[in-house]
UniProtKB/TrEMBL annotation:
GO terms for biological process: cellular response to phosphate starvation; phosphate ion transport; regulation of DNA-templated transcription. Member of the two-component regulatory system PhoR/PhoB involved in the phosphate regulon genes expression. PhoR may function as a membrane-associated protein kinase that phosphorylates PhoB in response to environmental signals. It catalyses: ATP + protein L-histidine = ADP + protein N-phospho-L-histidine. GO terms for molecular function: ATP binding; phosphoprotein phosphatase activity; phosphorelay sensor kinase activity. It comes from Duffyella gerundensis. The chain crosses the membrane at residues 12-45. Residues 210-425 form the Histidine kinase domain. The lineage of its organism: Bacteria, Pseudomonadati, Pseudomonadota, Gammaproteobacteria, Enterobacterales. It holds the Pfam family PhoR. GO terms for cellular component: plasma membrane. This is Phosphate regulon sensor protein PhoR.
């Protein structure tokens, strides 16, 4: 192991240079000149080593230091070891920064690093997506110049970050901002997308409001008739009418509760066993008789289905989806409408559709038809006993079968509700039998 540079070593080198010069000077005469030449030689040698060091540090910059002699050898070696340690530390720091940025990119939040003045010096991908920042173009820009919202500017300038700030952005997304110290003179700004949370909260409020409204009406009717029957005796036609109305309202509440339970049960099952064989043709034969009974001759109803076409899935959920579509067509189309129900194999799988030549549905209503309690004609729906939950049940039941409800309508001409189950759900035995025939 090389010795460290010390004054003893330097003194030894000087003595080794002066001692021969002193001996020669005593023997040959001219002691002073010999000593001066020895000292100049030592100085020139040190100057030459110093020049090699300077050239290596500022010109060459290779990892391998020049060959040092004497007292300069441990100095060159020490600098070389220091350079190795610095490069190793820079490499470790670079890897640490990469891991930090990789972890920051994996977070579900937008992250922005700024100075206390608000100047940006880093942001992740979600910040570029949600906050419309550009990186590295926005490096050094003040965040208040890029997010021009009065509430956000007040939040940053007041520097009271005990509570988060929720903003509705220009793209109608809700973002929750939090600011926290990151290091000395730096801030970490975190923005989380809470749009779905606000939507769910709004849906929850609407759900309870609608349920309360739907139950209040029949309960008010029942309470009114019970008070009438309690205050004064009712007999004859008045009593029969009151009992009939109370039975209707009771059935309406019972139907609403059943549909709520069905919808809750379907939504509460994130994974559905699709290995059960569902005999859809038998289901359609039963539905045809029920639809004709429900229609009582007010509609022309035709069923066109492949009697051998069965699928894998959940029998209860598929029955709910198909029956709701058929009953909706009977209940919500006027007298004289022709209703066509189809269950046929198509190129993309197997398609079920219910179409009618009724008055149709306006385009502005189509995107909202599967919302809970949404009705196109509220007065007519209540008159026919509709709760506005049927299509919501259909939507969630189909999502468990990798399918979605498709609605097409031309006002004044026709409306079609349909869905297509993927080929993987078709019972293969039925395919083989049909191929033989």
């Amino acid at each position: 192991m090389l010795e460290r540079l010390s004054w003893k070593r330097l003194l030894l080198e000087l003595l080794l240079a002066i001692l021969p010069a002193a001996i020669l000077g005593l023997l040959l005469g001219g002691l002073a000149w010999f000593l001066l030449c020895a000292v100049l030689a030592v100085l020139f040698w040190h100057f030459w080593q110093l020049m090699k060091l300077s050239n290596w540090l500022w010109v060459d910059r290779t990892m391998t230091p020049p060959t040092g002699r004497g007292s300069w050898e441990p100095l060159f070696y020490g600098l070389y070891q220091m350079q190795l340690r610095n490069r190793r530390r820079r490499r470790e720091l670079g890897n640490l920064i990469k891991r930090f940025r990789s972890g920051a990119e994996s977070l579900p939040d937008a992250l922005v690093l700024t100075t206390e003045e608000g100047n940006i010096f880093w942001c992740n991908g979600l910040a570029q997506q949600h906050l419309r920042l550009r990186w590295p173009e926005d490096n050094g820009q003040n965040i208040l110049n890029l997010l021009r919202y009065p509430e956000f500017s007040r939040y940053i300038r007041q520097r009271d970050f005990a509570k988060p700030l929720t903003l509705v952005m220009n793209n109608q997304r809700h973002l929750e901002f939090r600011v926290m110290p990151y290091s000395e003179g730096q801030w970490l700004l975190v923005a989380r997308d809470v749009t779905q949370k606000h939507q769910l909260e709004g849906a929850r409020r609407n759900f309870f409001a609608n349920v309360s409204h739907e139950l209040r009406t029949p309960l008010t009717v029942l309470q009114g008739y019970l008070e009438m029957m309690n205050d004064a005796g009712m007999a004859g036609r008045s009593r029969d009418k009151a009992l009939h109305t109370m039975q209707e309202q009771t059935r309406r509440m019972d139907s609403l509760v059943k549909q709520l339970l069905t919808l809750s049960r379907i939504e509460a099952a994130p994974v559905v066993d699709l290995s059960e064989k569902v005999d859809v043709p038998i289901m359609l034969r039963l539905l045809q008789r029920e639809a004709e009974t429900l229609s009582s001759g007010r509609h022309t109803i035709s069923f066109d289905f492949d009697s051998e076409l069965k699928v894998f899935g959940n029998d209860e959920q598929l029955r709910s989806a198909i029956s709701n579509l058929v009953y909706n067509a009977v209940n919500h189309t006027p007298e004289g409408t022709h209703i066509r129900v189809s269950w046929q194999r198509v190129r993309d799988g197997v398609r079920f559709s219910v179409s009618d030549d009724g008055p149709g549905i306006s385009a502005e209503h189509l995107p909202r038809l599967t919302e809970r309690f949404y009705r196109v004609d509220k007065a007519r729906s209540r008159a026919t006993g509709g709760s506005g939950l049927g299509l919501a049940i259909v939507k969630h039941a189909l999502s468990h079968h990798n399918a979605r409800l498709e609605i097409t309508s031309q006002p004044g001409k026709a409306t079609t509700f349909s869905f297509t189950l993927p080929p993987g759900l078709i019972v293969q035995a039925d395919l083989a039998e049909n191929a033989v025939h």
